[in-house]
Amino acid sequence: MAQGLNKVMIIGNLGRDPEMRYTPSGRSVTTFTIATSRKWTGTDNEKHTETEWFNVATWGNLAEICKRYLIKGMLIYIEGRLQTRHWEDSEGNKQKSVEIVAREMVMLNNKQNELIDG
After folding, report:
1. CA 106 to CA 115: how far, in whole Å?
2. Are 36 and 12 in contact, with CB atoms under 8 Å apart?
3. pLDDT 10s digits, 7-48
4. 25 Cβ neighbours under 8 A, 6+ residues apart
5. DSSP secondary structure string, 67-113?
6. Cβ-proximal residues to 86 (8 Å cutoff; 6+ apart), any chain
7. pLDDT tens track for 64-105
8. Is the distance from CB of 36 to CB of 10 less than 8 angstroms?
9. Integer CA distances (angstroms), 60 to 47, 81, 87, in order
């Protein structure tokens, strides 16, 4: 039986500085947002830009590295998987969010352009 594939690769700019926290068990998690943009010229010769925002979560060693080295505006490559989270807010409304759980990160405007595995 074939298995599924859940893989995401994006290149974009950090929308905010990473925020790190720790789970009750002591595991580190760092979250941040990445913006990707595409530009095109329409049939009317008008220039258009569309920006898509992604929430990203990193865990463990990669979380520590992201918190230490990443800053708002940096161009980075992220590879990971999509994950959907479901919860109820304080008013009982069902909520849902989709995020990228990153496994690898490359700082593209870093001189070394190192691949960092989580």
Report:
1. 5
2. yes
3. 999 999 999 999 999 999 999 999 999 999 999 998 899 999
4. none
5. HHH--TT-EEEEEEEEEEEEEE-TTS-EEEEEEEEEEEEEETTSSS-
6. 94, 95, 96
7. 999 999 999 999 999 999 999 998 999 999 999 999 999 999
8. yes
9. 42, 16, 24
